[in-house]
Design goal:
Length: 345
């Protein structure tokens, strides 16, 4: 280590990953694609690749047990990993679960966590095949590693978007973020006066989006049925803007999207306005929806455009143009990543 000291806040999460990993060269012929996508792609058999990904969640950073039931946390930890396998157009198969636990947690609490994990394993047809358990000085940490399978001809990377492709998202955006805002608001009310009951009425949808996100394995099955193969894909864990910029960078292109096209549920918009948040900001920068963001070539527009699961939000242009969000008056604002870029906040 040299004497120089670079603050992580200067680098940001992705700058740090680049710095740490740039000199690694793959040594095994079976490593088809390493760092830089939602999952690594590994040789398997003549027709298939194995996918491998991992995600860590720490108490106080990714979740707050004041309002996140452990059962939901277990479910969410699995679902968010499954989402990375979906982002490669694959099917999940195996997980390992590693825990760091402080003595604050009794056996019963961890059993509750595992109930959620078991439920997600059933829903997503995944086998729990191992893990590791250690103590922690304070708090709970969960790391899940996941494998999946994809036909070689079906694998989709972040890097395949081409000029004039259409940009599409599944489901709706911003709900998980607004759900979090409601939970944070009620936490503050509770802290100020523990006798006041939290007021969560009427917010079921966005609370569900925050606490029990569903990885879109259904969409991957749909691509198979519709015979559509996206040209590029990523899952929306950090926020639409941040993920769009990942696709733009990996594909060496630019993205143009329209704010009027962002799929934002009425319940999300209502809560956003109630809390003085611009609904489009929630849709653009709110994370954790675990929807899929992908691009298709124009020939697939007829198949995708009319399907209620999908919303076309813009198109791919050449690299030099820069990535923008365009408002209804035609004014273009440069897209910037304001999602969960750890260290930068
Ligand atoms: P995602 O949000 O889809 O989980 P990330 O943004 O966390 O993906 O990671 C981007 C890429 O960087 C992935 O290929 C991931 O495996 C890799 N990566 C992240 N952190 C590290 C690390 N500490 N060391 C090596 N690779 C990393
Ligand atoms: Mg991802």
């Amino acid at each position: 280590m040299s004497e120089k000291r670079t603050e992580l806040s200067e680098l940001g999460e992705f700058g740090l990953i680049d710095k740490l990993t740039k000199d690694f060269k793959n040594k095994n012929a079976a490593t088809i694609y390493g760092i830089g996508d939602d999952a690594a792609v590994l040789e398997r058999d003549e027709e298939h690749y194995t996918l491998l990904s991992t995600d860590m969640m720490l108490e106080g950073i990714h979740f707050n047990l004041m309002y996140m039931p452990l059962k939901h946390l277990g479910y969410k930890a699995v679902s968010s990993n499954v989402s990375d396998i979906c982002a490669m157009n694959g099917t999940p198969e195996h997980i390992t679960v590693s825990l760091a636990v402080s003595n604050r947690f009794p056996q019963e609490a961890l059993e509750e966590l595992y109930e959620g994990i078991a439920h997600a394993c059933d829903i997503f047809n995944v086998d729990l095949v191992g893990g590791d358990t250690t103590s922690s000085v304070s708090g709970l940490g969960i790391n899940i590693a996941i494998t999946g399978k994809v036909k070689k001809t079906d694998v989709v990377y972040r890097s395949g978007a081409k000029e004039n492709d259409l940009i599409v998202v599944t489901g709706d955006l911003g709900g998980a973020y607004m759900g979090l805002q409601i939970l944070e608001r009620e936490k503050e009310v509770y802290k100020a006066n523990p006798n006041i009951q939290p007021d969560l009425d009427g917010h079921d949808y966005i609370l569900q989006r925050q606490m029990k996100p569903e990885a879109r394995t259904d969409v991957i099955a749909m691509f198979g049925e519709l015979k559509v193969k996206p040209t590029s894909m990523i899952d929306i864990s950090d926020g639409l803007a941040s993920e769009l910029l990942h696709i733009a960078k990996a594909s060496d292109v630019s993205c143009q999207i329209y704010d009027e096209k962002l799929p934002i549920d009425a319940k999300t918009s209502m809560t956003a306005m109630e809390m003085n948040v611009n609904p489009n900001t929630a849709g653009l920068n709110g994370g954790e929806d675990y929807e899929l963001l992908f691009t298709i070539s124009q020939k697939d527009y007829e198949t995708i455009g009319a399907n209620p699961n999908f919303t076309v939000i813009g198109y791919i242009s050449r690299k030099g143009e820069g990535s923008h969000i365009v408002d209804k008056n035609g004014a273009a604002i440069e897209l910037t990543a304001q999602g969960w870029n750890h260290f930068k906040d």
